[in-house]
Specification:
Layout (H helix, E strand, L loop, with lengths): L3 H21 L5 H16 L10 H32 L13 H17 L2 H11 L5 H8 L3 H24 L2
C-alpha cells in the first residue's frame, strides 16, 4: 500500500508538466507559473485524504487556474495603483512615459514600503479600497466609520505614499 507521500510524488510528477503548459497560456513567466504550481500542490498536500479526491485532474486544473487568475487580477490592480500614484490619475501612459521593468519594480518596492509605514487604520482602509476593490461606503460600514472619515484616510494615505516615493526617488 502506497503512503500519502508516495502518492503525492506520483501526482506531482504526472501533473506538473501538463499544468505548467496549461498555465503558460496565461503568462510566459516561468517564475510565476512555478510559484502558482507550488501553491497549488501545497493546497493539495494540505488536504488530509487528498488521495480520495474523485476528480484529481479537475481539482488541480481548477485550483491552478483560479490561483493564476487571482495573481493576474492582483497584478493589474497593482499596476493601476502605481499609475495613479505615478501620474496622479489612473490614465494610461504614453509610450514616452512608460517605465522600464526595473523602474516598475523599484516603484512597487517603494510603494509597499510606504503602505507598510502608514498608521494602522489608514493602512487597512487603503488596502481595503485598493487591493480588495471595496467602495468607500462598504469600508465605512465594515469599519463602522463615516464615509467622510474613509475619504479623509484615503487622502492621507495617498499623500503620504506619494511623499514617501518622491523622497526615495529624490535620493537616487
Amino acid at each position: 500500500m502506497k503512503t500519502q507521500k508516495q502518492s503525492f510524488g506520483e501526482i506531482y510528477q504526472r501533473f506538473f508538466p501538463e499544468l505548467f503548459v496549461f498555465l503558460h497560456g496565461y503568462t510566459s513567466s516561468r517564475h510565476e507559473i512555478e510559484d502558482i504550481l507550488q501553491d497549488t500542490f501545497l493546497k493539495l498536500l494540505s488536504i488530509k485524504d487528498f488521495d480520495k479526491i474523485q476528480n484529481l485532474r479537475g481539482f488541480l486544473y481548477f485550483s491552478a487556474r483560479n490561483a493564476m487568475l487571482n495573481r493576474l487580477r492582483d497584478n493589474r490592480n497593482r499596476e493601476r495603483l502605481l499609475r495613479e500614484m505615478y501620474t496622479g490619475t489612473g490614465e494610461e501612459l504614453t509610450p514616452e512615459e512608460e517605465m522600464s521593468e526595473e523602474e516598475v519594480r523599484l516603484l512597487m518596492r517603494y510603494t509597499d514600503e510606504a503602505v507598510e509605514a502608514l498608521p494602522e487604520q489608514c493602512r487597512e482602509i487603503f488596502r481595503m479600497a485598493k487591493r480588495d476593490g471595496k467602495s468607500y461606503a462598504d469600508i465605512a460600514i465594515e469599519k463602522q466609520l463615516s464615509i467622510k472619515t474613509v475619504e479623509t484616510q484615503m487622502g492621507r494615505a495617498l499623500q503620504k505614499i506619494r511623499s514617501f516615493i518622491k523622497e526615495k526617488l529624490g535620493k537616487l
